[in-house]
Amino acid sequence: MRWIDRTASVIGGLSLVVLVTIVASAVFARYVMGQPLAWTEEAAGLLMVWIVMISAIGTEARGEHLTIDIIEGFLSPKGRRALIVVVGLLSIGLLGVIAWYGWVLAEASAMRRTNILRISWFWIYLPVTLGALGVIVVTLLRMAGHRPVSAPSVLSAHVEADA
């Protein structure tokens, strides 16, 4: 799962750099040059959807999505394994619905274009499907026994540096 996390992190990180550059350009153009760039809002919105959905894959690969683990502490190892399978199956079901309807919406909107950039709405809805499918793959890997990628904590790295 490490390669999934790294790929999602690289794509998400590069997209974030582009997003910050676009927003900074928009602010500079509007407030310094007095000439707003009309395309920046659409581009930033499009990138934001991609960043969120691709980052969801990496977050799941690291096991960092929000969880409620109260029940897990009371279960035996077998019970925990069963819980992982049940939660995984429920997650796959929900993510499958999200992926399916994301695709339906992307296909239905493919002929529509955004107002300024004239980009097909397909590219705005596609990351919903890709993100859901990516998280399904990670969930299946976890159910098959793969452990989440251990990402070093910023807090632990800071504490170690102070020691």
From TrEMBL:
GO molecular function annotation: transmembrane transporter activity
Domain Tripartite ATP-independent periplasmic transporters DctQ component, first and last residues per copy: 20-144
Listed Pfam families: DctQ (PF04290)
This protein's record includes keyword Transport: yes
This protein's name: TRAP transporter small permease protein
Topological relation to the membrane, as annotated: Multi-pass membrane protein
Lineage of producing organism: Bacteria, Pseudomonadati, Pseudomonadota, Alphaproteobacteria, Rhodobacterales
The organism's place on the tree of life at top rank: Bacteria
Gene Ontology biological process terms, A to Z: C4-dicarboxylate transport
Subunit structure of this chain's protein: The complex comprises the extracytoplasmic solute receptor protein and the two transmembrane proteins.
